[in-house]
Amino acid sequence: MGFAPAHAAEESKLETQFKAAISSDRIRDYHRYFTSTPHPAGSKSDYEVAQYIATEWKKQGLEDVVIRQYDVLGTRPVSTSLEMVAPRKYTAVLRERPYDVDPDTQNPDVASAWIGFSSSGEVTAPVVYAHSGNPEDYDLLRRHGIDVKDKIVLVRYSNPYSYRGFKALAAQRMGAAALLIYSDPAEDGYKKGKVFPDGPWGPESHIQRGAITYDFMVPGDPVTPGWASVPGAKRIPENEAVSLPHIIALPLSWHDAQPLLENMDGAVAPKDWQGGLPITYRLSGSVVAHLKVEMDNSTQAYYVVEGRIKGSEFPDEWVLLGNHHDAWEYGGVDPSSGTASMMEMTRAFGTMLKEGKRPRRTLVFCSWDGEEVGLTGSTEWGEQFADELRTKLVAYINVDSSTSGHNFEGGASGSLAPMLVETTRTLQDPGGGTLHDAWLKSAAVERKEEHDRRPVTDANVVNIRIGSGSDHTVFLNFLGRPVITLEFDGPYGVYHSVYDDYYWMNHFGDPGYRYHATMSQLWGVTALRLAQADVLPINFEFYGSTINQFLSELEKNKHYDAAKLKLAAAYKAAKELEAASGKTEALLEAAIASGKLDAAQSASINGLLMKGEANFILPEGIPGRPWFKHILYSARYTYAHLELPAITEAVESGNWPEAQHQTEILVKALTAETALMKEIAASLEAK
Ligand SMILES: [Zn+2]
């Protein structure tokens, strides 16, 4: 897509050389380095990792390598403790068991159980089991006459999945005194398969650390919402920070959760609340616990490493590639697999540059910090360079975890979905065949498991419903730039625990580092295509049809009332966009294939294509969450994807005038997009 015939052959040659330069052995070496010490955001070892990346990038030949510092509200554990005081005594271990086969698990620098942005405090109170800690769970408790006010709420991580910060907000709103979140073996332990060190699932003592920042309201440093935490920046008082939780929280292994659960003697919990432990789960009873958490919230410095390869022809058009370097402990999968894939990819780009092959557009590489604490490094960087990014950023390609298994998962804003599909056709899957074939096959298996009967096709294999939870958020939702997210996944039950390490990767995740290597290739080739194309491979035809789909899903929302909100105008506008962009695409394809588009014409079309995504940006943001400005994509508070966020939330809260107003905004955006497509078409027809 986007290459004139003469350039397509050159590009193909360049990609072949690029792919051949990637070595899985070198990725293993990088991975060993990144997984050698625990390096949570703000720690000394995390800073050392940032310095290592900067030094390597300079050696590799990247240009303008700098480390950007952000002074952010910190969150570090000073001490945590939990005891059951009734009906019998039990002191929680809050530590993960070391194993002889894996010396990394014996490292005394591994932290105990803690939650980022837990409040400090001490409480002794009855414990209530609240299933997943979602609002409907509290409704059920209420029906059983159980009020969780001033109690300690014990919830499990994912049945169904919701972001732990959402559980914290739900518990805080219920007036709970504290929140304990534990990993149930039904979700990531022995009920799934063999546990570490014999298998990929979480063992008895594994602890899923994590932050509970309310980053679904505003990500990044809670005291600089919407602007960068550069040293000396203005900060708001902590009590005005909407993303700052006000609840004591602690994560637990099921080893520590079981004594609390099995000593309850109240009403038996419903069937779907029963977990994988060999006990009867109850709602409440005579269990009383004493919990104490002391946190240090003094300012911490986070470090984002930035490097680039300046474009030979269009230095002010940027393709950005990013991964975070902070990890709860070693981060074998999350994020070190991605960091290792990135380092080998940047090395290949550096080699290319040394051979005199400079891409036409600028490649910018960023190694983020503090992703785990609220998407902080990428958010602050995106806010710092917002004006430049709004006009220069062609696309952002995010790889958080690159590999926890063999199943490829590709996500993209609708306008980049077709080019992502096309790119996978030119890569080999380590399991045989093309990555494209392997992707369609694994997606079909996944759909079958989820009882989704839609056949997998090129038109629906890309995940275009992009929620939050990683570093693409600021670029998509705040800046309105197109994004791509790439990952290989598989059976993985040690997320955010000490066992997510080098041993795990070498025994279960990707022992030969072949999928890591495929990721380095795919990530690099995708960026190369965006950086080299004559006409940017941004396709808005697909957007028209996906918006139609989003509208029909909105009509199926149980809160939707056709008498109160008419969507006909929105459907019509989406259809018009589909038709106009379809025509533009056809004209563009023909013009590119003819090889007759001159440089000036391509440049002017690219300028217009770059403006396309911004039509879906609402400067004042979606109601109640002004930081989130994209009107097609957002995330629910649970982190689940949410399409047409402003209209949907207005419909769900029964605010029909707002729903109407937001629908008019959508129609306006679609109309502007259609006009843009027609402008491109007219410029082609004029020739
Ligand atoms: Zn991550």
If you had to describe this structure to a student in words, what would you say it looks like?
This protein is of the alpha/beta class. The protein contains 20 helices and 18 strands. The strands form 4 sheets. It has a 7-stranded mixed beta sheet with strand order 1-11-13-12-14-16-15, sandwiched between helices. A 7-stranded mixed beta sheet has the order 3-2-10-5-6-7-9, with helices on both faces. Strands 4-8 form a two-stranded parallel sheet. A hairpin with a 5-residue loop joins strand 17 and strand 18. Helix 2 crosses helix 8. Bound molecules: zinc ion. Zinc ion binds next to loops.
Short synopsis of the structure:
This protein has 687 residues and is an alpha/beta fold.
What brief labels describe this structure?
seven-stranded mixed beta sheet, 687 residues, 17% strand
